[in-house]
Amino acid sequence: MTIYRMKNYDDMSRKAASIFYAQLTLNPRSVLGLATGSTPLGIYRQLIEWHRKGDLDFSDCVSINLDEYKDLPPEHPQSYFYFMRQNLFKHINIKPENSYLPDSMAEDAQRECARYDAVIEQSGGIDLQLLGLGHNGHIGFNEPGRFFEKGTHVVTLADSTIEANKRFFESIDDVPRQAITMGIRCIMQARRIVVAVSGEAKAEAVKACFQGPVTPEVPGSILQLHDNVTLVGDEEALSLLDL
Ligand code: GLP
After folding, report:
1. Is residue 63 one of the residues assigned to a domain?
2. DSSP labels, 101-141
3. Domain residue limits at 47
4. What is the pLDDT of residues 160-198, one digit of tens each?
5. Closest-lying ligand 1 atom to the alpha carbon of residue 35
6. How far apart are CA 32 and CA 202, in angstroms?
7. Which of 5, 7, 68, 184 has the highest count of CB atoms within 10 angstroms of its CB?
8. Residue range 116-170, pLDDT digits in tens
9. Positive or negative, the Cα torsion across 226, 33, 19, 27?
10. pLDDT per residue over 87-118, tens digit each?
């Protein structure tokens, strides 16, 4: 595993974005696994800036997002569909038909999960997957549990996740209780993974994921078994690691 210990959030964002820059430059047809949350915002801003300068072209790439809240319509400002549009897609030249998110409104959620797994497979697999970490060590919306869920699945969000994500909603009651998320197998099959972390509040999750036991109780700990992971964090987020 490669670890980049950056001074602050902006440096972390630029470094993580530069890995996407390299990936797209070497292979403009890359399949990018994308993430939501506050952490990737700086990365997306940087990618948009490079695109505006004419240095990055997204016209041939494919994006596949990790997850989506269940039963939150795409036009809802807190849906991940909306997030991706506002914070990345509308500013770059990715083709709408080449960017995928789980359909949160699908009537048959199980079928939607199977469809999403097929999308990933038919794309040829993810070349570069971006991940953030939940405070409880979740990746995507793979919550702590007794086993690793492999494929795309419906998940009931942990209370701590609902608590952490309530900041985006009017009240805690408005936070969806369920989501559709890519499973651990899809994530682990990505050819390269970049984990972006920032801030002291993530320090324990980072320690548990990268220097603790590999256990489904800390879903991100599975990343220790992947042979091409780059952890990019600021000093605060990496402060508990033995480096
Ligand atoms: C959500 C997303 C995750 C993300 C996590 C951390 O739960 N499903 O993909 O990594 O939040 O978000 P933040 O970066 O805002 O701390």
Report:
1. yes
2. ---TT-SSHHHHHHHHHHHHHHTT--SEEEE---TTS-BTT
3. 2-132+189-196+224-231
4. 999 989 999 999 999 999 999 999 999 999 999 999 999
5. 9
6. 24
7. 68
8. 999 999 999 999 999 999 999 999 999 999 999 999 999 999 999 999 899 999 9
9. positive
10. 999 999 999 999 999 998 999 999 999 999 99
Number of domains into which the chain is organized: 1
Nearest CA to ligand 1 atom 10: 132
Cα separation, 192 vs 230, in Å, equals: 8
Q: Is residue 207 part of a domain?
A: no
Q: H or E element: which one contains 184?
A: helix 184-188
Structural domain contains residue 112: yes
Closest ligand 1 atom to Cα of 199:
16
Q: Which CATH number covers residue 104?
A: 3.40.50.1360
pTM (two decimals): 0.97
Pocket-testing residue among 9, 13, 34, 36, ligand 1, by greatest number of atoms within 8 A of Cβ: 36
